[in-house]
Design goal:
461 residues; six-stranded mixed β-sheet; Rossmann fold; alpha/beta; 14% strand; binds pyridoxal-5'-phosphate
Length: 461
């Protein structure tokens, strides 16, 4: 399988190169040159597979040629061995034909574990084969940092540096990162805000000379391997409610458009998906784009669903590529127009987007109402992101005979503020995290200075 850039200027690369590169050197994002597609009969024949077996079937065409089958199977088994439910991604029924797909059964209690548990292992394997090392640098305001650290901690060929804003992440989120003590894990608390941290990472990627020859790798959702791993649970959940013999719909709490883009790919690969619902909080650029063709950037709102607090969704470019007939020159033009302040798509591109997605936006008050109502009706406690997903599902659902699956992206214990504002009691930590508040922590506090941060990294690789 070859991968091409959405901006059409960078060379096509193999899976291993794309895995280590992250962003393409023309500023675009990598996507497969062609997608495998499956008939109803083929998909139906997967119904009795375990999650791990299904994961192998679905991801194999994307990695074939780079990773031997037995090694890939072992990596998949290891990646999902730390999940605390045997079906890995269990489903819970919350109403008639209405389901919640629990994607928070991994080590850090958010769906990002699905991809990052595998990503660390894939990177380590490719680096070992090539005799290379990679330095991971990332900024986090919460979930990504802990999931990335958990995914990379055992990698022999990776050093991981995660920047978080000092005293501006919740204690659960900080401790999920800082209590992982390994030789290759470095937590840096920067005396600044999240944008300062992200700015430092961006600058470091653009000029890597401070690394004295080492290379930087990306673990955010621009990395193709993350999208790939997320395709699997669309198939597993759909199969469990009767697909491919019937259609299914999905609602997805959306930030950077990575998770729901995986659903779009599942549909391209033959899964009969009726609706894909983009659920946003008040940071609603995607909802505005889909509903009104308005892609203008607005200032960032801090909400009760912080993992969806984004101004611009980076993975949306992957969809726009398809919406413009996979013409990289058109995407190049479009990005230039965006930077000059034009914020609309042409009619055919907008129509393409509308044909594939529905959308809905939920504010903080609405989020708390959903958490409270669902809890009082069913005793099931939603996290704020999932609550937004479920509300959007109910508002956009066109055909009630089609099962509607909402992706539950995090465990409610991670977001006590929203749960308590909804008048519910925050649940206790799951078994494997019971002693989180007693564990030893390790992190360094640095000034809001890129020179200091880069020196810190250079001294430790
Ligand atoms: C990252 C995250 C999201 C958003 O996912 P995208 O792939 O960026 O759209 C939603 N919910 C939770 C809990 C997350 O951690």
């Amino acid at each position: 399988m070859k991968y091409i850039s959405t901006r059409g200027q960078a060379p096509a690369l193999s899976f291993g190169d794309v895995l280590l590169a992250g962003l393409a050197n023309d500023g675009g994002l990598y996507i497969p040159e062609t997608l495998p597609s499956y008939t109803k009969e083929e998909i139906a024949s997967w119904a009795s597979l375990s999650y791990q077996e299904l994961a192998f079937k679905i991801m194999w065409p994307f990695v074939e040629g780079e990773i031997p089958a037995d090694d890939f199977k072992r990596m998949i088994d290891e990646a999902y061995s730390s999940f605390n439910h045997t079906s890995i991604a269990p489903m819970v029924q919350t109403g008639n034909n209405e389901w919640v797909l629990e994607l928070f059964r991994g080590p850090t209690l958010a769906f990002k574990d699905f991809a990052l548990q595998l990503l660390g292992r894939l990177m380590d394997f490719v680096l070992e084969k090539r005799g290379e090392k990679l330095v991971i640098m990332g900024a986090t305001s919460g979930d990504t940092g802990s999931a990335a650290i958990e995914g990379c901690r055992h990698s022999e060929h990776l050093d991981i540096f995660i920047l978080h804003p000092y005293q501006r992440v919740s204690e659960v989120q900080r401790r999920q990162m800082t209590t992982i003590i390994d030789d290759n894990v470095f937590n840096i608390a920067v005396k600044g805000n999240f944008d300062d941290c992200q700015g430092m990472v961006k600058t470091s990627f653009a000029d890597q000379s401070f690394l004295k020859g080492a290379k930087l790798g990306a673990v955010n959702s621009i990395n193709w391997a993350r999208i790939m791993a997320q395709i699997v649970y669309y198939f597993s959940s759909a199969l469990s409610v009767g697909a491919p013999h019937r259609k299914v719909s999905f609602s997805v709490p959306t930030g950077n458009f990575g998770d729901i883009f995986a659903g779009y790919l599942a549909k391209q690969m033959g899964l009969p998906i009726d609706q894909l619902v983009v659920a946003t909080n008040q940071n609603d650029i995607l909802h505005r784009t889909i509903a009104e063709n308005d892609m203008s950037r607005q200032s960032l709102n801090v909400t009760l669903s912080p993992s969806m607090d984004i101004m611009v969704s980076s993975n949306f470019e992957r969809l726009l590529f398809d919406a413009h007939g996979r013409d990289g020159d058109k995407i190049n033009d479009l990005m230039q127009r965006f930077n000059q302040g034009d914020v609309t798509l042409d009619d055919s591109a907008w129509q393409f987007v509308k044909d594939n997605f529905d959308s809905y936006k939920v504010d903080d008050e609405g989020t708390c109402d959903v958490i409270a109502n669902v809890f009082s009706e069913t005793q099931y406690l939603l996290d704020p992101h999932t609550a937004i997903g479920l509300e959007a599902a109910r508002k956009c659902w066109k055909d009630k005979s089609v099962p509607m699956i909402t992706l539950a992206t995090a465990h409610p214990v991670k977001f006590p503020e929203a749960v308590e504002k909804a008048g519910c009691e925050s649940p206790s930590l799951p078994e494997h995290m019971k002693d989180l508040f007693e564990r030893e922590e390790s992190y360094d506090v640095l000034d809001n200075s890129i020179a200091d941060v880069q020196q810190f990294v250079a001294d430790r690789i």
